[in-house]
Amino acid sequence: MLATLLLQTAVVTADSTATAAAATAAVQPSSISVIDLILKGGWIMLPIFALSLVSFYIIIERYITIRKAAALPDGFMNQIRNLMVKGDLQGAKMLSAQTASPLARMIEKGIRRIGQPLKDIETSVENVGKVEIARLEKNISILGIIAGIAPMLGFVGTIVGVINIFYAIASTGDFGIAQISGGLYTKMVTSAAGLIVGMIAHIGYHWLSIMVERLVFRMENSAIEFMDILQDN
Asked: Which of these, 2, 84, 134, 203, has the minimum number of CB atoms within 10 Å of its CB?
């Protein structure tokens, strides 16, 4: 009799444990991958994704270009000064032509104009500088545009998600999790994606602009130094 009672107790305990485990498993939410989460955003994620690709391309391409432009050999202006003091204008011109840098192209233009009034030489150097700066700033303004458009697209996704929620409620006549979950996914995912892409573009825009400003400052100082060399000679 005692053995039977113990057996029944063990069976009940096992059943209770299994039931509790099943209930716990049902309560625990299933994980979702990043890809699945992005797909929950719907079609509005396509233009946001395209803007992210454009942003990354411009940031990487402009960064490499500006870094190359800023890579000037040490003592370049000192070498130019020494050659010009010696009267070796051809050597100074060759040194500038062989140096792949916006600054070197400015100096080369100035050397080619030697013999003309200093004002004309200064104007030529400034014009070359403006062209080089425009090349450095190419496509950076697009990042500013993306920084404004991406969050707006995310807001459009928010509106679409709200519309989906109300449509589901109107279609079923029921206000429950099943009716609002799909719209909430679209609303939250697109909003987050738009803000993230906008922040990346915004940071990239200002970061690259600062790099260009630093290079422009160096170019201006070197142009002033070049004009001083001409005046001293």
From this structure: 2
Residue 27 lies in a domain: no
pLDDT at 1: 47
Total count of domains within the chain:
1
Domain contains 6: no
Give CA–CA dist 141/62, Å, rounded. Answer: 11
Structural domain including 178 reads 41-232
4 assigned to some structural domain: no
Task: Provide the pLDDT confidence category of residue 190 given band limits of 50, 70 and 90.
Answer: confident
pLDDT > 80? residue 183 = no
**28 assigned to some structural domain:** no
In sequence order, the 6+-apart residues with CB closer than 8 A to the CB of 151 are 194, 195, 198
How far apart are the C-alpha atoms of 7 and 16, rounded to whole Å?
14
